[in-house]
Amino acid sequence: MDSTQWHEANAAVEHFGAQTGLEQCSLDERGTALLAFDDVPVSLLLDETNGALLLLATIGRPPASAQTYGWLLDANLFWAATHGATVARDVAAGTIFLQQSLPVAGLQSEHLEAALQRFVTSVEELRRRLGQTDAGPSPDDRGELTSFMQHLVRA
Q1: Average confidence (pLDDT) over 111-121
Q2: Rounded distance, CA 10 to CA 67, Å?
Q3: d(Cα 71, Cα 68) in Å, to the nearest integer?
Q4: DSSP assigned state of 49
Q5: How many Cα atoms sit within 13 Å of 45 on the Cβ side?
Q6: What is the CB-side half-sphere exposure of residue 119 using CA atoms within 13 A?
Q7: How many Cβ atoms from other residues are within 10 Å of residue 19's Cβ?
Q8: Full-prediction pTM beyond 0.70?
Q9: What residues have CB less than 8 Å from 82, skipping those under 6 apart?
Q10: Could you give the CA distance from residue 109 to residue 118 in angstroms, rounded to a whole number?
């Protein structure tokens, strides 16, 4: 992948990495990267079709119940518990994710850092609220990420 959007997004990711002491922090040739913040792995995925850098993290696999899914819907309303991100579910895996789309145009490392801080805080709060101390495999485990990516491609 060698596009203007890739270069813009990668510049922000590299600068973020340099500022935070992460060596070789960059998007790969597919426009993806995986960053870990304590126990919160966050996938970065370049969505060139929509000019966005997507943040994606696993919340967990809570028991399917009306109460759980009702609370997740409430968390999405006006982004009350997600700080601007959106809760989503991978139907096939039964996994709850948090996702956020950042416009690539004009993306600066400072904006990326602030967005990542809010995003990770949201993941931790949602996990705590749902009683998930271990969210299970990272979304970068090929099965879940591939499944989720296929939904993106079809959309």
Answers
A1: 96
A2: 40
A3: 5
A4: G
A5: 22
A6: 27
A7: 13
A8: yes
A9: 75, 76, 98, 122, 126
A10: 14
The DSSP secondary structure of 60-94, one letter per residue, reads E-----HHHHHHHHHHHGGGTTTTT-EEEEETTTT
Amino acid occupying residue 72: L
Inter-CA distances, 41 with 58, 97, 109, 134, Å? 8, 12, 19, 12
Domains of the chain: 4-154 (3.30.1460.10)
CB 152, CB 76: distance < 8 Å: no
Token digits of residue 154: 């079809």
Angle at CA 43, nearest 5°, toward 54 and 11? 65
CA distances from 148 to 18, 69, 140 (A): 30, 19, 10
Beta bridge partners, 86, equal 99
Residue pLDDT, tens place only, 59-72 = 999 888 888 888 88
Tokens of 138: 């990272």
Residue 56 near residue 96 (C-beta atoms within 8 A): no
- Residue in the block written with tokens 């819907």: 73
Q: Tokens at residue 54, please?
A: 């997507």
User: pLDDT tens, 21-51?
Assistant: 887 899 999 999 999 998 999 999 999 999 9
Encoded tokens for 63: 């028991």
